[in-house]
Amino acid sequence: MKEKVLIANRGEIALRIMEACEELGIDYVAVYTKEDEASLHVKKAKEKYRISDYRDMNDLLAVADESKCSAIHPGYGFLAEDFRFARRVVMRERPLIFIGPSWEAIRDLGNKLFMKRVAKELGIPVIPGTTEPIYNEIEAELKAEELLEELRELGFENPTLLVKAVAGGGGMGIEEVKDMEEFRPVFRRIRAYAKRLFGDEGIIIEGKIPEFQHLEVQLLGSKKGEYVHFGTRNCTIQSPFRQKRVELAPGFHYKKEYQFDPQKVEAQIIKHSLKLARHFGYNSVGTWEWLVTPEGKFYLMEVNTRIQVENEVSAKISFVKGKQVNLIKEQIRIAFGEKLGYKQEDITFKGTSIEFRIIAEDTQRGFKPLSGTIEKFKWKDAPWLTVRTHVPRNEPYTIPTQFDPNLALAIVWGENFEEAKKRGEKFLDNLVIKGKTPQGEPLITNITFLKQSLEKVYQFL
Amino acid sequence: MQIELHKKLKELLETAEYIRDIKGEKFFGIGSLIERVSEYHENFYDFSPGEVKKFIQETERKLNVLIEEAEKSLTPYEIVKITRHPQRFTLQDILENVYDSYMELGGEGEINIDPAIVCAKAMLIRKVGKNYYFHQVMVIGHEKGHGEEYRSGGSAKPWGNEKALRYMQMAETEGIPIHFFIFTPGAYPIEDYPGAAQQIARNLYYMAKLKVPTVSFISEGGSGGAEAIGLTDIRLMAEKGYYSVISPEGAAAIEAKLKEGRPPRELVEKCARALKLTAKDNLELGTIDRIIPEPPLGARRKDFAFFRRLKTELIRATDEVVLQTRNLKLLRKYALSKQEGEEFKFFVNWELDADEVEILLENRAKKYRKMTEWALCEPKSTFKCFLDLGQTIGRKIKNELKFKVFKPGHKTFKKFFEELSNESSILLKPVSDPVKNVYNLIVGKKVKPKFPSTILSDESHFYNIYNIPIDLEDRTVTCPQAEKYGCPDLWVPDLYGEFCGVCPNCGYHFPLSYKWYLENIFDKGSVKTFNDEIASGNPLKFEGYEKRLKKARETTGLNSALLSFEAKIGGISLIAIMLIADFRGGTVGVAEGEKFIRAIELAKITRRPFLALIHTTGGIRIHEGTLGLMQMPRCTMAVRDYVDAGGLYIVVYDNNSYAGPVASFLGSAPYQFALKSTRLGFAGPRVIRETTGQDVPPDYHSAENALKRGHIQGIWDRRELRKKLFSALLTMGGKNLYYR
How many CB atoms are located within 10 Å of the residue A134 CB? Predict the structure, then answer.
């Protein structure tokens, strides 16, 4: 039977999955909501169904059954990291293949505290802090004092603590504590906030790493127990809400001066990432996120059990037996049980690539997301440039208000960092996005911010 | 003279009407007789006195014959009608005729917190030879009145029962016996504070250890209302009274599955027979101690001979209770034997000293513990009995040694040590602190302060959520509140797995099978049931009930509606019971009561916390009549005993919990919590409408309202049940738990 994939996502990733399916010779079905009718992913797909919401499992599975799909690709965002969806997909009466890791892996690695505990047991360095939720303030105070001591021992001067709601995330339910005097009121405040917002009072305390670079390891595991990595990425440039804006591969600028040996550190974090992946029998693409301090210390932060937005940054510099890799294709292939067909030695890296996320947002005013209509969207094509977008170039496009106002991903490649940077600047200079907000004012994008950020990459922030 | 005759005629007319009311219009032409008597009564002066006299004599003779005939063919339902008849004596008549003087307390007629309950300080005079002795007693009882609206037919409101409790406490303070008079069709089913069910439970809980002799007299013993003042050392019953778990009409409505309207007459009579509600039946069942004989067709307001008899019986009964607390057995026997007949040859002082109070309470506990035990269906060989007994005794000795002998020593030492170290730390702090700092500086590491973990480790819980096949079906259900809150449809394995049967969007609690709780609330594999072989039977030979019981057994694979088991939560061992909806609606009968008592006794001996998880309870099982009803006082006594011994008794309600159990062993728990989906109360909406004539709002019995009325201690979310129980185990309860 020929495989058929339901693409349970929208925009750029839906297009990428379609492309990958076509190259693999697999059928696919697209879904879309009312607001996305004008999106390219809808126009491109031959078979498509309109659903109420990309998050509606019932709709998605009904479409899968109706169109006789054999697998579901969740893309990123929406249901990609919902272990209940993954579980339901494989455990229903008419099971489907979930293109992603096993639901157990999604659940266990997605539970940050649990992941941290396991990592600690395996001897993988994690950010100093508690690994169990704390409910009691006396206990919390004791733990906090212990932690401050530990941080001082580790060489942090004037250590700062982060009090976090277990159920929180994305910058919500988190507060800094510099002085033990203010610890108790902060703890109480966050606990009350967590109870109100998430219904769970659990609190964790972590040390704040003052300066760092955000590195991530791109892994790929197959169902046959094979593991390879595609190097590291550097995603230090983020919005204040910890959303990535500029990503680079590889993770270190090997020519730059560091207080440590970057190649050694990179090897270490890759080794640790693989260890944890093996522990969970991880069998798909995944990203292990790390914090690296200027002194060369590194801590595992979290694991993303999905294909990531920035997957192509790694793909652009990675070559399997001399051929450029497509991680989405690899992910689909592996989900259907295929072998990798190559080993780590077959993977080579060449050059530096930089990805820009072009977003309609007001970076001057707290990165406020904007909506409106795009009238002109132009850039100069070049062999070193890849632009991924669902925004049509030949007609006006209205940005839906329901979703993140991501417009495009642009990836530039260069033989080395300096060349890539130059090409990036060139691309951004030539990029034209013109549009209007619903109020009739000119639409603002983050191009200027991206340009400024380009000066700061590979720095400890 | 003529006036006398007229009066006599009036009496005859009343008697004739009384007979008609009991036996019906067609009984030996009673209808035409009434017509003739009323003709004489109305046109009295048209007849000559001689004629009237002759007619009176004739009619009197006739009526006497009729009464005798009527008495011979008296059916249980007719007895119910006698009990309810407006001409029957009431508490007011007893106060006036039985007691030598009385003063009503806390109310006067309509000016009363609840005119259905009368409390009075009364005096009884005992004549021994030429000497007069005075006895003070507290009289508490229902006043039906003779049709006055404000008496509400003797249905006590919650605050009426609360008033009864206050006067019980007053009698206890003064050390005088209490005589209870039960004339109630049932408690008035309203939930307003203190709540019908909760107040009855509170009364039972208190009466279990009331430190004065108590005697009750039952004329109309309607279910929970009767129990509210019925847990006594001796229970007397009027020969023409009835004592039942439910009115025959109510039983008929349930049997016929009626939602509205009146059940058919034949069915009502059948139910009255089947419920075994007469005095004779109840004596046989062992739920009462003695019957007070009444004249044929029952005593009415002017049957003075009956009142005389009642007085003697009340004194005798009180004597008996008192004498049983006295140490000399022989004297007791002699004294009792001398009290036969109406003449007293002895004076018995009704005051008890501390030792005697202890014996009194012991006697009371034994009496109720034994009651209804004969009706238990428990397959047991004598050898096993012996073995069980040995085991219980062994366990008792072991725990006594462990907790009473070793633990206190350990505890005292620990306390002393703690005090010592606290004192010394204050003294030594200025000295030791710098030392500590230096130590830390040198060693470079702070000594880890020890803190007991209060976190419920859910590691084991994290995996293997699925256990019950029905919860694994690949299908979705729609949340009933979807229209209001826009909830997405829920996949069953999710819903009955991690969602704990709760809609994650709006918090709606779906009903779950009882197995879910066993699998998910307690530590994995820690649930061990016991006493499973104790089975519900059909002690009253209730027609058609055997078959339904068999069906319940087959569909559930259980022998009774109550599951008792040992389990662990976060490593803390506890004893728990669960009332299960699947088995006859979680109703409570002899087997369930006995299992409850044995479980809580085990918890007491082994010093473990006791949890009652109520999946659903529909009340006392009507098919077991008063035998079922007796489980209310029985279980409540066990609860009191356990709580007083320093245990932790927690009740958690889910789904529906109504009537008897809530009004006794559940409602008397110091800690009661309800899950959000709970409906909790005394009577359902239909009974409320029929009794009070008023419709209740749909959320009348909701957990929120129960909390608002102060019936429960809190509302829990089912998703947090395990966590909440764990923290409850750690923070609540008395000092005698094994882990304290």
Answer: 24
- What number is the average pLDDT over the span B335-345? 72
The CATH code for residues A4-99 is 3.40.50.20
Q: Choose among A88, A133, A149: nearest Cβ to B446.
A: A149
- The Cα B362–Cα B340 span in angstroms is 26
Q: Which residue has the tokens 């006493």?
A: B531
Res. A51 pLDDT band, cuts 50 70 90: very high
Active-site annotation holder among A10, A16, A233, A306: A306
CA distances from A136 to A142, A205, B453, B726, B738 (A): 10, 12, 10, 14, 24
Question: How near does any CA of chain B get to the CA of A58, in Å?
Answer: 7
Catalytic status, residue A188: no
**At B104, is the pLDDT very low, low, confident or very high (cuts 50, 70, 90)?**
very high
Q: Does A132 touch chain B (CB under 8 A)?
A: yes
Q: Which of A84, A93, A199 sits opposite B494 (nearest CB)?
A: A84
Does residue B739 lie in a domain region?
no
What is the pTM (predicted TM-score) of this model? 0.86
Q: What is the C-alpha to C-alpha distance for residues A71 and A233, in angstroms, rounded to an integer?
A: 29
Nearby residues of A65 by Cβ (< 8 Å), 6 or more positions away: A94
CA gap A86, B446 in Å, rounded: 46
Please report, for chain A, the start and end positions of each structural domain, with discontinuous segments joined by +: 4-99, 128-207, 213-453
> What mean pLDDT is predicted for residues B53-57?
92
Contacts 24+ apart (CB under 8 A), B375-381: B375/B285, B375/B537, B375/B539, B375/B590, B375/B624, B375/B627, B376/B534, B376/B537, B376/B590, B376/B591, B376/B594, B377/B534, B377/B535, B377/B536, B377/B537, B377/B591, B378/B533, B378/B534, B378/B535, B379/B533
**Containing structural domain, residue B68:** 2-73
User: To which CATH superfamily is domain A128-207 assigned?
Assistant: ATP-grasp fold, A domain (3.30.1490.20)
Contacts of A356 (CB under 8 A, 6+ apart): A245, A246, A409, A410, A411, A412, A424, A427, A428, A450
Q: Which residue has the tokens 């009434």?
A: B34
Give yes or no: residues B506 and B532 share one domain.
Answer: no
3-state DSSP assignment of residue B584: helix
